[in-house]
Amino acid sequence: MRAAASALGLDVEFRERPVARSLPEAAEILGIAPAGIVKTLVVKRSDDTYLFALVPGDRAISWPKLRSVVGVNRLQLPDPERALEATGYERGTIVPLGSTHAWPVYADERITGQRIAMGAGAHGYSMFVDADALIEALDATVADISQVAGEPAA
């Protein structure tokens, strides 16, 4: 993962931290708000290809919004084994850098303009990076793809 970040010219900071049982706990350990942690979710399309969705930690994927942006009518989260197979990372550590395949990246518009924390490919580590630099390096599509966590889909 470090080599992938370096190859893209990204300035990243890795921070070791105790393993957290939840995203809010990880945010507390890092001394940031939950929204400052960006979740990388691997999403399966009906044709067995995948994409990455980058969503602020205090929000959830809006399936209708993401389907509209991607231009498909069916998306789902794969089981843990398929997620590992598609990315090379276990759930909770998934990051679009250094994945076993360069799947397309869709970033929620709320992460732009800030330094974010995200998974670093292994439990007990976080990576800090400028969201705009990450989006540019990955040629990510930026759109409104999230909703308030726990809120019914609009």
Textual characterization of the structure:
By secondary structure, this protein is of the alpha/beta class. The protein is 24% helix and 30% strand. The protein has five helices and ten strands. It has helices at residues 2-7, 23-30, 63-70, 80-87, 131-137, and strands at 13-16, 37-45, 50-56, 59-61, 75-76, 105-108, 115-119, 125-130, 141-143, 146-148. Strands 1, 2, 3, 5, 6, 7, 8 and 9 form an eight-stranded mixed beta sheet that branches. A hairpin with a 5-residue loop joins strand 7 (115-119) and strand 8.
One letter per element, helices H and strands E, the order comes to HEHEEEHEHEEEHEE
Shape: globular
Structural class: alpha/beta
Radius of gyration: 14 Å
Amount of helix:
10-25%
Strand content: 25-35%
Number of strands: 10
Alpha carbon gap, first and last residue = 36 Å
Compute the number of helices: 5
Biggest β-sheet, characterized? 8 strands, mixed
Mean pLDDT: 93
Low-confidence sequence ranges: none
